[in-house]
Amino acid sequence: MTTSATMTAPVADELGLDMAALRAEFPMLHRTVHEGQRLVYLDNAATTQKPAAVIDAVADYYRTCNANVHRALHQVAAEATALYEAARTDLAGFIGAPETECIVFTRGTTESINLVAHGWGDAILKPGDEIVLSEMEHHSNLIPWQLLAARTGAQLQFIPVLDDGTLDLEAYRKLLSGNVKLVAITHMSNLLGTINPVREMVAEAHRAGALVLVDGAQSVPHFPVNVTDLDCDFLAFSGHKMLGPTGIGVLYARRNLLESMQPFLGGGEMILKVDWRSATWAEIPHKFEAGTPNMAGAIGLGAAVRWLRQFGMDTLHRHEAALTQYAIERLEEVPGLEIFGHAPERGGAVSFSLDGIHPHDVAQFVDQQGIAIRAGHMCVQPLIRQLGHAALSRASFYLYNAEDDVDALVAALHKTREFFDHADG
Ligand code: 7TS
Question: For residue range 300-319, what is the model confidence (pLDDT) as tens digits?
């Protein structure tokens, strides 16, 4: 065991991360589960834990300046509006957006993608138009396009996933010779961990006259993502996967697209002038933020972004890349364990099967030892089926995870193996 540990372990130290001090900022990491065991939280692709700075930002907002934004003339409403808009500025800076107005607050990745499908797709797509997706899309980046195709008569095309978990880019180029209006791809797969070469894919799509939506749910939280550098047309991501509160996320889109798109939800605060039978819309981004928004959520997400920035996204990525490498080496020591996804560029979501043991049993058994992992179809049902499974187990990492968490998982998986082998025998 020490051999692989010494090969790849000293990451946090090298990067100057003080893991004990860092973990101390996360109250959830100090609770215990199943009668006093340390919680080893390895379900970060589903949602991350929150540091005190984020919890406090949300609580302080409710304690000190709760009021509805953009409408009242009183002092606390002005303060609330200033905090809400400051969060928008933080988010724009975080993803390199050229203008703050290009940041629309939504409930999360899912709502952001649905907003594009309705606000852009309904008006633009005609029968015979094509939308290119990949075979590794989360249901959030599949179902909205299935619904849009049914509404408009557009066709869905899929970039195949190769055996190593990368996309078949030759096939992608061939697909682009069709009548493609939109490419919608994940930046990082939540199942295989693959990081897709999005910048190159965007350039190729643009040469073919198609727009590109990037599903950044698993990328924006984990490594530097810059929309100006990627040159993408849309980027969707969720706050809760990057230390922020639930119920808040972002759609970034180019100004000209947002200005030409139809609103997705109608209601208060998204209008300019209203008559009985018609209305005109507010300026972007407000045109897309009907009703009272999630003020506390946006302010909490702004705090999350500021918290992440003190480490730097590059440091976070290097820490996770080294930890993932370590995890893969250690997991492969477990008899009968198969890892899915061997892309050279990969992030910290590691899916696996344990020969002869159902993934739900694996997750429940390791949970008894204090370790939280995910098991199921991971919202990528067609791909899991294509891999010959109904479900898999998955460990996924974040900044506060380290080698001790991986070691705990590996020890628990050895025990699981022994228990089930014994039960079978
Ligand atoms: N896209 C990807 C790539 C995701 O991983 C997820 C959530 C979503 C979109 C949807 O994000 P939401 O915040 O709108 O729900 N992924 C997972 C997961 O892997 N386990 O639970 C949720």
Answer: 999 999 999 999 999 999 99
Is residue 154 in some structural domain?
A: yes
Kindly give the distance from the C-alpha atom of residue 379 to the centroid of ligand 1, in angstroms, as a whole number. Answer: 8
Domain match, 73 and 210 both: yes
> How long, in residues, is the chain?
425
Residues with CB under 6 A from ligand 1: 45-46, 108-110, 138, 140-141, 186, 190, 215, 217-218, 238, 374, 378-379
Domain limits for position 385: 4-30+312-424
Contact 316, 222 (CB under 8 A): yes
Q: Is 65 a catalytic residue?
A: no
- Looking at the structure, tell me whether residues 68 and 161 fall in a common domain: yes
Instruction: Please report whether residue 391 resides in a domain.
Output: yes
pTM over 0.90: yes
Bridge partners for 238 per DSSP: 249
Residue of minimum CA distance from atom 11 in ligand 1 = 109
Distance 320 CA to ligand 1 centre (A): 19
Residue in the block written with tokens 């990328």: 219
Question: What is the amino acid identity at position 189?
Answer: S
DSSP 120: I
- The number of the ligand 1 atom at minimal distance from the alpha carbon of 238 is 13
Least confident of 13-27, 153-167, 256-270, 327-341: 13-27
Shared domain for 353 and 305, answered yes or no, is no
